[in-house]
Specification:
The chain is about 10% helix and about 40% strand.
Amino acid sequence: MMKRFMQLTLICAAWLALSGVASASLTTAGTWSGNVGMSVDGIGSNASPVGTVDANIPVGATILQAYLYSAGTPYPYYASSPTTLAAYNGAGITLAGTPITNFSELVGATSTRPDIGQWFTARADVTALVTSLAAGSLTDTFAWGVSEGSLNDLIDGELLAIAYSHPSLPVGSVAFLNGGQNTGGETSFVNLGAPLTDPTAPGFAAQLGMGISFSCCGNQRSTVQINGDLLTDTAGNLDDGLGGFDGSLITVGGLGDDPANNLGYGDDDELYDLRPYLQTGDTSFSIFTQNPTDDDNIFFTSLYLTGQIEDVTPNPTEVPEPATLSLLALGLSYGVRRVRRRKR
């Protein structure tokens, strides 16, 4: 009995030490203004290789930034889930056959369920690689293979986010945001460098896309509100995952998705039109996210706006849930995990 108690104590202590690494509200991974656009896509499976991630880059565009996110399954729900940059960098993850060994940041959600714990999604800067892959191309469409090496069954998938500029594009802004919210709900504010013009005017565009992992099967869904109004309560599922098992559960709002097609769980593709939620003269707007089932990882958000996005800041009035409460529950529920959505 004492040995079992010591094991639980060590696990709780380890999780507490790790829990501070990745948890935060939506935070800015980069903003770009001018004649800019973006390409966002995702793929997940338990096959080897995983599959291909697509990109759409205008011929002659300048790559401003490219990130590869690799979304691991949660810890301690899976005791072998990756929780460190070293684990990702040593796994043999590749993009277009090139090893990715420069993962440099951990992001991801924290669940209020201690048996789920926390997600440690890794982000790598792949700007130089994407620039070389697109250089000299006579086409604007690409499909690059992804593999996950030794972590294949413990990573739900990859997301490739690319910001670029091209003189043919309208003036606007692109923002990439790291997700790290508590599943119980958190708010972030998108701050604008200038008041918005009329959102109903021809040519005005405002879109939000989300990357979500560890979600599937109809009952796991997240709620998103803009300025307090409901944008969706059916965000989630495995739209970009193949197989339907843990290790392949990912959905990414981006290429091939319709921002007007969000009428239900099966149709919601995590790409949304924000124009109905914005008003002329707005200098900021809020994004609230919550995952009522406490088992989905909102690890990424993209924004495109024909306006000037300055930065994204958390709501200073919200207080994160104390880790100690989670640790107490973790000790009681440590043995209950594994069998979840579908058994292999």
